[in-house]
Automatic annotation (TrEMBL), chain A:
UniProt keyword annotation of Transmembrane helix present: yes
BP term (GO), one: protein folding in endoplasmic reticulum
Membrane topology qualifier: Single-pass type I membrane protein
InterPro entries in the cross-refs: Beta-prop_EMC1_1st (IPR058545), EMC1 (IPR026895), EMC1_C (IPR011678), Quinoprotein_ADH-like_sf (IPR011047), WD40/YVTN_repeat-like_dom_sf (IPR015943)
Name under which the protein is recorded: ER membrane protein complex subunit 1
Domain EMC1 first beta-propeller: 22-409
Residues that span the membrane, as ranges: 950-973
Signal sequence coordinates: 1-22
Species for this entry: Hibiscus syriacus
Residue ranges of domain ER membrane protein complex subunit 1 C-terminal in the record: 765-982
Top-level taxonomic group: Eukaryota
Subunit structure: Component of the ER membrane protein complex (EMC).
Coiled coil region boundaries: none
From TrEMBL, chain B:
Compartments where located: Endoplasmic reticulum membrane
Name used for this protein in its record: ER membrane protein complex subunit 4
Highest taxon above the source species: Eukaryota
Membrane topology, record value: Multi-pass membrane protein
Length: 983, 179
């Protein structure tokens, strides 16, 4: 009996909760998934053997992946943790990928064909240092050896099983290691580096057992700076600390000799200090002075000679040995719209092995990295292919003067996302190429009908599935009346804007923003924020919508701001401006001017408010609403929340009528010794709320939701508890949550969860907040819900007054009216830790809501809001059950079918965006991280439209058959009647 | 019927209407048959027919009362059906409730027609009609009551409030953690 009861409950449950899973053949109908890897840091080709040619890459987003060299597809990919950056990578024995990561602490070997990890060893050392990985051709006891210098210790590790064969400490010496070199054919390695910044150190170490063979050093009074360039196995080039003198350091057979050559001797008009571009090309190196790149040859005994001076943007690739004693390297230069790929022999500057000019999309910016690889043609000559990494983080393979493939890996690092409508379908807008003709339409429907009537052969079924996936309807470039077709506009870390079509995820346009590119005024611009600027409605439908991109010149709160306005249909940058003030906050105001430009309030670091757009009309609107515009700041480092109102015009020396000073209205100072702000969340600006009443069916009662846009949810923890879970005891850890009215500074609700700690992820919608945290006492994650109700409206219960409209429920309310609120809350255990949380949003807000939870497994889980309802009780009454109240359980169920990402993963999940479609039942969900995932999601099924599977042909045929039957029976009945009369 | 009419219109040359009991000699040129006295027929049958008419009107009155009481049975049956249907909103209970509402309404619309056969100068139909109307109103009330118990009548504050949009806010505030 004790067992049957929960089973019975479960049955009730499962009948109540709509299951949102989809069938196998529905995958890909409305969803798409794209995989990216991020900006490539290092690439190693694997093309020696027959079979599939591939390239192994490691990226700045800590991804190790192998790509198909033919198409650029990912064979396998591993995403390492956020603090597990890859320092070095190489291929060993032709079948293992060896990676050194986590600042030289972790060495892993991956199986090249399938990406399985073969072994992992952790390397420890006495102190922090540069991490270097060197693949040797040495064999000790039938083990190939890889030599690693990391954390002040030299390790020799077996490639086969990861066993550390020997190690040697460099603890005592204050060595800054620069290179680990193994001269060809020898069985010792050189460790070279600088000590105390003015001493050159060289160690010669027996690679078989780690024995120190020789240790030499030489002092140079000028000091060393920057990186070194290796010009032979026993010679390297460095710069002195002023950057004006080149030092050629030779350590042949243990004897160190330093030769200095002032740069001014080589180049007449040396503009200033130079930097060395690190490379390891035999007999050649490059330095860069301002924008000029100078190639210098090393001739014999430290003689230097300028090979070429290049004024254009130049990128130098790695050196590649193509045969015994022959090294080549690649140069990529920009020439107008083209890029020029040159492959030169290291010892012969004037001879070009390859010279190709390739037309390059301007929106990819400059070339950042080049990786060269060669292949032997059938006539035994050398062919070259180059993998290049562009400024927008995209990856391209060049071969025989063309771009073989390209990958838009900038999409792996998205900063912000917004959406835009597509153009309205008009006579002028051509959609012809997507239209089907009538015959194909009929054929399609006949196939579908066959499928419905189960007459279809397997080929037909495949054709039906293909047709459904390639439906031209979903990828048109015009608006549809369900609102499914939109543009997702994303801003990436590279400063590039992409517009993705929601139908199939293709890139409609992309633009590398000029304002976010390096310039004189702005050295290291970064993108911060993206929001719709102008969304034309009714009267301005013929105008294009615009988005606003907000950036700043460098990573500091008081850096000057950058604004850019981009047309969201075409991607053209309408205008951009470098502001004369910094940007601390961007506040979109709920007002638009006559051209539907939204007013924005930009707060700078000095707490001055600047209004945009700077038009007289906008300032008129501001004047009208002057006393109703407030703003607040959350200073999370010192725990102060302050509220401000606009006061007066700025009294700076420049007359700017769009700039206002702020006066502080209120402040909430949290005690810094006991509370630290870790999360704040507010409602979305564009959220639609259908009703202000919450009906309680049990006693036909009504509760009024406290719906305010000016509510702020703040979560604080004990300062000690802001570190990782498990580092403190439950007694000294607490989580305090606040609900604050940001106009008046009134704290509406405060609650303490003892023995709990962050990280807190929260979502705020309508009148409720759901937040997720860790309960140290229960050793489990918890989710809590708070619902806020307005008690001062609760006496509006007279039916007759409501019937005749004598109530004040729809009259505007002010935060200063201080309405009484009551809150209800409840907590539940939850199995997963979260990466992101959001809630579905629909066009009118009628459809019930589901929470979208980005789990630690990088999937998106839909959880019905009814599970987080403070009115849940252990034994709900019959009426409550009918209303949809689920019996209370201590933990929230995870229903496997409600993963909306079904069997896919959005690696490195960062955020989830929901956008309402025009169809009330449906919301569009976009999850991004390394991967992108988009789907349509109907929280309570699509109750307002026929499903995709609905067979119109069957309906049509049924109607025709019915009409025919009616006609036939009418004729028959006429005839029978006539016969009756004749009788 | 129609066939007969057609025949009579054209085929028959003459006819005698025996039920013609007017005292005046036949208006036609054909004389009355011999021994046929128009006056005497009337005289002989008068008492009998009066009795007959009384009986008929009594019968009509009785029938009218019966008809007037008929909805009562209906009412009982409806009540039973409603009890069977339960208080939850589903297809069966909605069907029952709407038929319970529709029947009295259609019956009330056809009050005149129902009592048409019993119309007589001597029969007092007001009483039965009132009873009939009252009973049907009772049925209607029962239906409305059922509708209410199903929760389909807007008698609660919640029914009027749920369509109200949220109130506008006067102030606007934005901001947050610095970018």
């Amino acid at each position: 009996m004790a067992i049957t009861y929960p089973i019975f409950l479960f049955l009730i449950f499962s009948s109540l909760v709509p299951i949102l899973s989809l069938y196998e053949d529905q995958v890909g109908l409305t969803d798409w998934h794209q995989q990216y890897i991020g900006k490539v840091k290092q690439a190693v080709f694997h093309t020696h053997k027959t079979g599939r040619k591939r390239v192994v890459v490691s990226t700045e987003l800590n991804v190790i992946a192998t790509l198909d060299l033919r198409r650029g597809e990912i064979f396998w990919r591993h995403v390492l943790g956020s603090n597990d950056a890859v320092d070095g990578m190489d291929i060993a024995l032709g079948k293992y990928v060896i990676t050194l990561s986590s600042e030289g602490r972790v060495l892993r070997a991956w199986n090249l064909p399938d990406g399985q990890m073969v072994w992992e060893s952790s390397l420890h050392g006495p102190k922090h240092s540069k991490s270097l990985l060197l693949m040797t051709n040495l064999i000790i006891e039938r083990n190939n050896v890889v030599v690693i210098f990391s954390n002040g210790r030299l390790h020799a590790v077996s490639c086969v099983d990861g066993e550390v064969l020997w190690n040697k400490d460099f603890e005592a010496e204050s060595l800054e290691v620069q290179q680990v070199i193994q001269p060809a054919g020898s069985n010792f390695v050189y460790i070279v580096g600088f000590a105390a910044s003015s001493q050159f150190e060289m160690y010669q170490i027996n690679a078989r057992n780690g024995e120190l063979l020789k240790h030499e050093n030489a002092a140079f009074s000028g000091g060393f700076s920057g990186q070194v360039s290796l010009v032979s196995s026993e010679t390297l080039v460095a710069l002195d600390s002023t950057g004006l003198i080149l030092l050629v350091i030779s350590f042949h057979e243990g004897k160190i000799s330093i030769q200095h050559t002032p740069i001014s001797n080589l180049v007449e008009d040396a503009p200033g200090p130079a930097v060395i571009i690190p490379s390891s090309t035999m007999g050649l190196f490059a330095i860069r002075m301002n924008a000029v790149t100078i190639f210098i040859r090393v001739r014999g005994k430290g003689m230097l000679e300028v090979a070429e001076k290049v004024n254009r943007e130049t990128t130098i690739g790695n050196a590649l040995s193509i045969s015994e004693g022959q090294q080549v390297f690649a140069l990529v230069q920009h020439a107008g719209r083209d890029i020029r790929l040159t492959v030169k022999l290291a010892h012969d500057w004037d001879d070009d092995l390859l010279k190709e000019s390739i037309k390059m999309d301007q929106q990819r910016g400059l070339v950042h990295k080049v990786f060269l690889n060669n292949y032997v043609r059938t006539d035994r000559s050398h062919g070259f292919r180059a993998l290049i990494v562009m400024e927008d983080h995209s990856l391209l393979l060049l071969q025989q003067g063309t771009i073989v493939w390209s990958r838009e890996d900038g999409l792996a690092s998205i900063i912000d996302v917004t959406t835009s409508e597509l153009p309205v379908e008009r006579a002028g807008v051509s959609v012809a190429k997507f239209e089907l003709n009538l015959f194909e339409w009929l054929k399609g429907h006949m196939l579908k009908l066959k499928g419905t009537l189960m007459l279809a052969s397997p080929e037909d079924i495949a054709a039906i599935q293909y047709m459904r996936l390639q439906s031209s309807e979903k990828s048109k470039m015009t608006r549809d009346h369900n609102g499914f077709r939109k543009l997702i506009i994303v801003l990436t870390r590279a400063g590039k804007l992409f517009a993705l079509h929601t139908g199939d995820g293709r890139i409609v346009w992309s633009r590398l923003l000029q304002s976010l590119c390096k310039s004189e005024a702005c050295q290291h611009p970064i993108g911060l924020y993206l929001c719709p600027w102008q969304v034309p409605h009714h009267h301005a439908l013929n105008e294009n919508p615009f988005v606003l991109v907000v950036g700043r010149c460098f990573q500091s709160p008081d850096a000057l701001g950058v604004l850019s306005f981009v047309d969201s249909y075409t991607g053209k940058e309408l205008s951009s401006s470098n502001l004369d003030h910094s940007i601390a906050r961007v506040i979109p105001l709920p007002f638009t001017d006559s051209t539907e430009q939204r007013l924005h309030l930009l707060i700078d670091a000095d707490k001055k408010a600047h209004f945009y757009p700077k038009t007289p009309e906008a300032i008129g609107i501001v004047r009208r609403e002057f006393s109703n515009i407030y703003w607040y700041s959350v200073e999370d480092d010192n725990g102060i929340i302050k509220g401000y109102a606009l006061k007066s015009k700025c009294n700076s020396n420049v007359a700017d009528k769009f700039c206002f000073d702020a006066s502080e209205l209120w402040s909430i100072v949290l005690p810094s010794e006991s509370e630290k702000i870790i999360a704040t969340v507010t409602r979305k600006l564009n959220e639609a709320v259908h009703t202000q009443a919450k009906l309680i069916a049990a006693d036909q009662d009504v509760m009024y939701k406290y719906i305010s846009r000016n509510l702020l949810f703040v979560a604080t923890v004990a300062p000690k508890a802001s570190c990782e879970i498990g580092s403190i005891t439950p007694e000294e850890s607490w989580l305090v949550i606040y609900l604050i009215d940001t106009v008046t500074g009134r704290v509406l609700h405060r609650m303490t969860h003892h023995g709990s700690q962050g990280p807190v992820e929260a979502v705020f919608s309508e009148n409720w907040v759901v937040y997720h945290y860790f309960n140290l006492r229960a050793h489990r994650y918890e989710m809590s819900v708070i619902e806020i109700y307005d008690q001062s409206r609760a006496d509006n219960k007279d039916v007759w007054k409501l019937v005749v409209g004598k109530h004040n429920l729809t009259s505007p309310i002010s935060s200063y009216s201080r309405s009484e609120v009551v809150t209800k809350s409840q907590s539940y255990f939850f199995t997963h830790s979260l990466k992101a949380i959001d809630v579905t949003s629909t066009a009118k807000g009628i459809t019930s809501k589901q929470l979208l939870i980005g789990t630690i497994g990088d999937q998106v889980l839909a959880l019905d809001k009814r599970f987080l309802d403070p009115r849940r009780s252990a034994n709900p009454t019959q009426v409550e059950r009918e209303e949809g109240i689920i019996p209370l359980t201590d933990s929230l169920p995870i229903i496997p079918q409600s993963y909306i990402t079904h069997n896919l993963r959005v690696e490195g999940l960062q955020g989830i965006i929901t956008v309402p479609a025009k169809l009330e039942s449906t919301t569009l969900v976009f999850a991004y991280g390394l991967d992108l995932f988009f789907t349509h999601f109907a929280p309570t099924r699509t109750y307002d439209s026929l499903t995709e599977e609905f067979s119109y042909a069957l309906l049509l045929i049924t109607i025709v058959a019915l009409v025919a039957a009616i006609f036939v029976t009418w004729v028959l009945s006429r005839r029978k009647e006539l016969q009756d009369r004749w009788r | 019927m129609e066939k007969g009419k057609g025949v009579m219109g054209s085929g028959r040359r003459w006819a005698v209407d025996f039920s013609d009991n007017s005292t005046a000699p036949s208006s036609r040129d054909i004389p009355d048959p011999l021994g046929f006295n128009r006056a005497s027929v009337d005289q002989d049958d008068s008492t009998v027919s009066r009795q007959k008419k009384d009986a008929e009107s009594n019968w009509k009155a009785q029938k009218a009362w019966e008809v007037a009481q008929a909805p009562f049975k209906n009412l009982l049956m409806m009540g039973f059906m409603m009890w069977m249907a339960g208080n939850t909103v589903h297809l069966f209970s909605i069907g029952i409730t709407f038929s319970a509402l529709w029947q009295p309404i259609s019956a009330l619309q056809g009050v005149g027609k129902v009592f048409e056969p019993y119309k007589d100068s001597k029969v007092e139909l007001l009483g039965p009609k009132l009873l009939f109307i009252a009973l049907n109103l009772g049925g209607l009330a029962l239906g409305v009551w059922k509708l209410n118990t199903l929760g389909l009548l807007p008698t609660h504050a919640s029914d009027w409030v749920s369509s109200l949009p949220p109130a506008q806010e006067v102030e606007y505030s934005g901001g947050g953690i610095p970018l």
